[in-house]
Structure formats: C-alpha cells, structure tokens
Amino acid sequence: MSPNPRPFSLADAARVGFQELTASRDALAELLPDLSVGAGELLQAFTLAADPDAALARIRELCERYPALLEGLDAASLGRLCLLVGASPALGDFFTRHPEGLVDLLSGGGALVPAAQAREALQTAVHHPETGETLAGDAGWTALRVAYRQLLASVALFDMERTTEGLAEEAFEHVAGSLSVLAAAAVEASLTVARATLAAGLSGPAVRQGRLDAVRLAIVAMGKCGAEELNVVSDVDVVFIAESADDDALDTDALIRIATRLASETMRGIHDPGIEPPLWQLDANLRPEGRHGALVRTLGSMLAYYDRWAKGWEFQALLKARPLAGDLELGAAFVDGTRELVWASSSREDFVGSVQRMRERVTEHIDDDDLDVQLKLGPGGLRDIEFSAQLLQLVHGQYDDRLHVAGTIPALRALVSGGYVARSDGDRLIADYQFLRVLEHRLQLEGLRRTAIMPLDPEGLRVLARASGLAPTGPELLEAWRRTQREVRELHLKIFYAPLLSAVAALPDEELVLGSDEARARLASIGFRDPDGAMRHLSALMRGTSRRARIHRNLLPVLLQWLADGTDPDYGLLAFRRVSEANTDAPWYLRLLRDGTEAAERLTRVLSSSRFAAELLETIPDAVAWLERDELLRPLGLTTLLEEMRALASRRATIDEAAAALRTVHRREVLRLALGRLTGVITDGDVARGLDSAHTALLDGLLLALGREEAAAGRSPVIAFSLIGMGRYGGGEMGFASDLDVIAVYRPLGEVRAEDASREALRRVTELRRLVSDPRFPVDLDFDLRPEGKNGPLARSLDSSRAYYERWSVTWEAQALLRARPVAGDPELGADFVALADEIRYPAEFREEQVREIRRMKARVEAERLPRGGDRTRHLKLGPGGVSDVEWLVQLLQLRHGAAHPELRTVATLAALHAAAQLGFIEAEDAGHLEESWRYASRVRSALKLWNGRSSDALPTDWSELEGIANVLGLPRGKTSELEERWFAVSRRARAVVERDFFGYSDEPEYRDVP
C-alpha cells in the first residue's frame, strides 16, 4: 500500500501566509489530529493570523501543555484563536501560562469591557475566593495582572474581529476607551492590594487599619489615560493627592508619609518585575516639580503649586486630567480646582516657550535615527496632531467652553464645530489620527510592549499590514504611512497658521475665516509679542489680488511657523515685509522662496534670529538669492576682493563716489559672512578670515582712491603711507564685535619738510576716517593703540616712531606691537615698520621688573576698566578667564621668549599659544583650557552682535537676550542655562591657569605643616 498522503502541501502553507513552508506544513499535519476541525477549516483559520508562523507555534504549545484544552473548538473558535495569537504572540504566551478562561473567550468572541465589569472582575481577582480577604503582596499583584490580561485579551480580540470586517479605524475610539477603563480598574485594584500590603507589614512597618482608613488617596490620570484614549501598552501618567478623613487619627506629616507608601506600593503592583510580567509603567513624573518633587501632596498644596509656580507645559499636561482611582471625590476636587488655571494658561507670560519646551521634552531622548520611523514623535506623527489640537484648545478655550474636552478626536471635532478648523481639514486629521493609532496599537499588541517604531523590513511590514487591515501588502502599507505623514505635516501647518491669514486678508475662497480676536490669540500663542503689529504686516503682504499677494498667501503659513521657531518672530516678520517690499521688482524673489529648497527657511531663520543681519539685508535685498546656494555664502578671498575694490576705485570720478562704492562692497561681504555663519555654512575661522579680507580690501581701495585724487589734482606724492593692523585685526582673529584697530605710519619722500609730511599724513588719516564712515553700517577706525595712545599724534613718521620706541615707550606699547602687521598702503614702509617692531616686541632680555610691570598693569585694567556695579564673572573680555586673560598671558610668554624662539613670533593669539605649549612654556592641558575659554568668549561676543546688532562684552542676564545668543550659536531652545554654565566653567578653568602662570600665584599650600 502507498503511504498516506500529506494532508497539506507547500502551496497550501504559502497561500495561508506561512514563511517557513516545510516546517509549517509538517507542524499543521501534526496539529490536525488534536483538533476537531478538518484540514480546510484549519487552513482557513490560519489565514486570519497576522503572523501564521507565530500563531502556529503558540497553538502547538497550548496543545502540548493542555491536550484537552482545544479538543472541542469549532472552526469559528479556532479562527478567533488564530486571529488573537497571530496578532499578539505575547497573549499566546500568556495563555500558555494561564489557560483558564481562554475557551470561554473563544466561544463567545471578543468584547469591550464596561467600567463596572472591569472593576468587579479585578476586585474579585485580588480577594481570596473563600474568605474574601484582600490578597497582599506578590499574591495580589500576580492575581491582578492575570485578571487584567484576560480582560485585555477580550478587548484585543474585539479589535481584531472589527479589523477583519474592515472597521479597525472606526473601532479605535471604542477600543481606546475600553483600554482606559481597564487601566482605571487595574490601578484601583492595585491600590486595594497596596492597602492590604501595608496593613500586613509586607513592605516596611505595618500600618494600623484605622490609620489606613483615614487616608483619602486620589489618583488622577493625565495624558492618554486621562483623555480615555489609551494605547494597548502605554505609560499611564498620574498624580497623587491625599487628605485625611480623620484629623485626630492622622496629622499632615503622618498622612503624607502613609499616602506616599500607598502610592509607591500601588505603582509597584503595576510595573515592578514579578512572577507575572508588569502591565505598563504607572508614571508620576508629571507631578509638581517632576521626579524631584514629593510623590504625594495634599489638595491645598497641589492647588497652591499650580496657582503660583507651575509652568505652561504643566497646564498643557493638566488639560486631560480626570479622577482615575481611589477617592474620586477628592480627585474631582483637584480637577475642578485647576480648570480655570488651565484655560487661562495661554495668557501667561511664559506660555509659548514653556509649551515649546514641553514638545521638545518628548524628543530629547530619542535617537535621531529613530525619528524618521517614529509613528508618535517623528515628523507627521501622532505628536503633531495632538500638539496642534491641544495648543488650539488652550489658545481658544479661554473664550469657548465647547473646547473643554480631553480626547484628541473630541477636541478636533469641537474645533471644527467651533469654526477654528475647517471641516475638511478636521475630518482628514481625525482619519489620519485613527490610521496612526491603529498602527501603534498593532505594534504594541504584538509583544505587549511599548513601542511606536514603524518597521521597515519586509517581514515586519507584512505582519503589520495583515494585523492592521489598513493595506493588502507591506509595501502598500509603507506608502500609505508615508502619505499620511506628509498629509499630517501639511495639515499641521494649515490648520494652525493658514487661518491667521484669512483673519487679516478676508480671503473669499477660504472655508475657514478666523475673527481678529482669535487670530491675535493664536499669534500670541506661537510667540508674537505684538499680535496687532503682526496682523498689520500680514495684511500688507497679502493685500490685493496680484500674483505676488497670492504667492504670499500660499507661502506664509509655513513661513510663520519658521519665524515662530526663531527668537524674535515680531522683528522677523517686519524684516520679511521690508525685504519683500525691497524686492518688489525682482521676478526671481518669490520664485526662489516658492521653489527653492532652502532659501525660504534660511531667510526666516536669519530674520527672526539676527537684527544685525536683517538690517544689512534690508540694504542689500538681492542677497536673499545667496541663501539657496552654500557656495555663495562662503567668503571671497582677499585677492578677489582687492581686484574688485581696486577696479571700483579706479573707475569713479570723485573720491566720495569711490568711497560709497567701496563701502557697499564691504557691507556686502560682511552680510555674506553673517548669513553664512547664521546658516551654519561657515565657521568662526572663516568669519575671521573673511572680515580680515573685507576690511583690508576696503582700506586698500580707499588709499588707492586718495592717491588717484591726489594725482588728478596735479599733486605729486609727498609721503609713503602705511596702515598697520593692531589688536584682533592685526592678529587676523576678528569677530563681528571686534574693533578695527590700526596705527598710521609715514615716510617723507625726497626733500619734503617734516612739517609738510606730517600735515599730509594727518590729512590722509582724517580723510580715511571720513570716507570709511558708513551711515548704513558703522565702521570706525580706532587709532588708540598708537604711540602715546590718545595723547599722541594720529600719524608718526617711521623715524619718529623709532626714536619714540627706543627712548620713551613703555611696556604696554611693546605688548601692543606683538599683533602689529601691515594691512594697507606702501608695502616697503610696512615691512620696515615690522622690522622696527620686531626689535621692540621681541627683546633679547625681558627683565623681571618688566614682568612685574605687566602684572601691575593687568591688575590695574581689571580694577579700573571693568564696569562698576556689574558682575565681573560675566564680562567676556576683561572678566576672569576672559579674552584679555588669555591674550595677556600669551603676550607675556612672547615678550619673554620670542627673541630666542622664532615659533613665538606670530601675531595670532592661538598660534602663539600652540607654539608655547610645544616649547614647554605652558602645559598642554592648561593651553587647552585657555584656548577653549578664548574661543567660547569670542563666539559669544560675535553671537551677541549678530543677535541684537549691538557690541557688548558682557554676558547678559536677561533671559530673552540669552535665548537670542543661544539661538545664534545653534543651541536648542531653552538652553540658556547651559550657555551660562559653560561660560562659567571654561572661564573658571582658564582663570586658574592665568593666576598661576601669569600672576605667579601658587596652588601649593602656603604653610605645609598646617593640617
């Protein structure tokens, strides 16, 4: 006889959806005799499984452990089993541990669990079936978790059955509500066990029953549980409030102590490791002061905190608060007591920044690699929808009670009904939210673990597509998700920003038009301090029916968001209006903003983050075009600028025309550097080189123009003239806040009399100062580092300079010459001056009394030049560890050792510091501290200039000023404390080096024998 044919083929296994075809075919054949269904019905049952391989493994294990359990299942019940464990292998594992109740579930089908049923089932589970006593400790926790998962399986099966009917999205609200009901019942049961545990003394000292009975403990839910839209596995955010039912039995201290133990035990019962795995995290970190605050507070303490100290994001968290478990009356009193504060919170001064920080909190610990696959936190994810709905509720809810709802979908419906969101947009956003939440539920149901990471592998997508019923195949599901992401991002912008435009433009084709009061409230909520002014600018940009107005209307929703991300959106919008008006006749401008890849976003960042750049951009509006191409934001080389400026100087008829043209090029290059730095295209080193080239080319061009004017007047040159760069200009280390320090030197030509030569040199200096002055961009030549300082002549001849330095100069003048280099004018004269300077700045011997003089002078500068009444530790230039500290120490090393070591003969501070470290005059670690402080102080000074357009050497104390600096430096919003803390840290380390290596203070104890 031939052997019995196999009941299943590989083709059968493939059609069902198995991946391990041979193994699954054989396993099905082994399973068939243990069941009361036919081969066809068995295959049909597994077609319902999202992951047939996983379902098969769990069902075989059930049959092996409990042979009689599944014997009598009919085809419908077997299908439900495959549906359940195929979508949730973790629930399959649960039933292999606890099979009781499985057959009843499969025969009746899944169902939502009403609140009363959930509460009764879990309370029954944590009481002894015979004595009725509450189970304490581990026995109670285990019974609770088992009973909870049995109810969860019923809800999950209901959800999956609706999925097979194509109703997964429609069922979402009901499922999320039932999960919230289960969570409430679980927390209530855990509190019941916690009371028994404390009474039995199983966790710390026993508490008398009378004292336990006197503790009224309310557990208030926040977040998704509070809104009754909970996930399958999600943190349940709560706060605990306690009151005494008997003041004679419990004073306040005892109340808080016992209530805290009760709260801790309740949390343990839900999420601590145990015989039965934890359910989810019961999270109390949204309580006042977060994890550093008291776990339990009295009602009075809670209300006082929210009234006096709470931040804006804490009111956003309270938006969804509801009594969850314990003393519901006390919980309701807390919720009722905070409602008025919640709906008035958008009027608070810190509301916008606080809410933005709340949004950033949820992503700060997420890996960048995960953001793109995050259903919840990634772009176009659930957080975008929830944040939009909550922010609109808070903005408009202070005027409209219809918005006082907790759930996201009810909130969106209320916003549509109230006229705050267009109906078509609201409906699409609700559909997208349901789509994303179904995906999130299926991902969590699979392993009963918290996750929102979208799989990208083919197998993961295939299983998710089958489990969700949202697409026939994995690739189609991925495309549907990407499409939803894009739509959510578009709608996020549209529903929040576009109605602002309709409020000021009265657009006839818009479905939704906000009133002016609502528009002002919404503008204020995103950071505009002057909503009325913003509405005037928006109206001006969109007025009329021209193509320009239409393009502005299309662009402004996203531009408003980008402006709001900056530090000063009010000024940014004003500057955008001015730049747009200045480019009215430029056909490329709007096309660039509309079609460019980066220009529009970069422009809004620049305008809302830097008054310095915005004001310059208004004078050169066509520079907007540079923002689209990185290469146009990089500095031009010195040679290129010299050629351009010399050509301009030679082609202008008068000296004033030449100077105006040269100043325009100079202003253009400074703007290029500012834009490059603000957009992150160039570094601080690029800025220093670019500024050096721009200043040098300007001075060179002006001197050339003066020479041409002299020649045109028929006068022969009477002097050779050279400008010597000093200070940071001489060192090639300029920032946007640096002074333009120079000295002027000349040499008479031929038989010219000394007084005529001096008169001509003074005329040139005076004329240079006039010509370099730019009414649109102040540039001042500073000659204060010349011999004799402010008391000396503005220009000296080379011979006079030599005589002065050899006979009369003091040590500070030799120190100033350390950074002298020729920058413009007669190159031979410049070289001769440098040769003279080398004799002075690199002396063969630098005596000890000269070292003491340098130290005394430094101490005098610190005593006299630091602003009176200011905090010296915040002074970036003259304060402890500031720029001056580093430069004076390096210059002292150059004065002492420069003659013997050519490596120290450099005008650049950092180059000299590196050379000193290599030569062993300073420890490498100490040199690192000095460099870090010098670079950081220089960056902050430049950032301050870029932010507000003013030069300042002090780190501000005002929060908004610090926020502006941090934004320019590229720090995340709200990191002003990090900005300050880093400065104090780097400057403190640098100052310690300066006190030891410059002033000679010792770190060693003065009296070694004293303990």
Quick structural summary:
By secondary structure, the chain is mainly alpha-helical. The chain is built from 44 helices and ten strands.
**Total number of strands:** 10
Query: Could you tell me the radius of gyration in angstroms?
Result: 38 Å
The low-confidence parts are 505-513, 1004-1011
Oligomer: single chain
**How much of the sequence is in beta strands?**
5-15%
Count of separate DSSP helical elements: 44
Decide which structural class fits the backbone: mainly alpha
How far is the N terminus from the C terminus?
A: 103 Å
Overall geometry: elongated
Blueprint of the fold:
Blueprint: H1 10-16, H2 21-31, H3 39-46, H4 52-65, H5 75-87, H6 89-97, H7 102-108, H8 115-125, H9 137-164, H10 168-200, H11 209-213, E1 215-221, H12 223-226, E2 236-244, H13 252-271, E3 282-283, E4 296-298, H14 299-308, H15 312-318, E5 322-326, H16 328-344, H17 351-361, H18 368-371, H19 382-397, H20 408-417, H21 423-447, H22 458-468, H23 474-505, H24 516-525, H25 531-542, H26 547-565, H27 569-582, H28 587-595, H29 599-609, H30 611-619, H31 638-651, H32 655-678, H33 684-712, E6 719-725, H34 727-730, E7 740-748, H35 754-772, E8 781-782, E9 795-797, H36 798-807, H37 811-816, E10 821-825, H38 827-841, H39 848-864, H40 883-897, H41 909-919, H42 924-948, H43 959-968, H44 976-997
Helix pairs in contact: 1-2, 2-4, 3-5, 4-5, 4-6, 5-6, 5-7, 5-9, 8-9, 8-10, 9-10, 10-13, 10-21, 14-16, 15-17, 19-20, 19-23, 19-24, 20-21, 21-23, 22-23, 23-24, 23-25, 23-26, 24-25, 25-27, 26-27, 26-29, 27-29, 27-30, 30-32, 31-32, 31-33, 32-33, 33-35, 36-38, 40-41, 42-43, 42-44
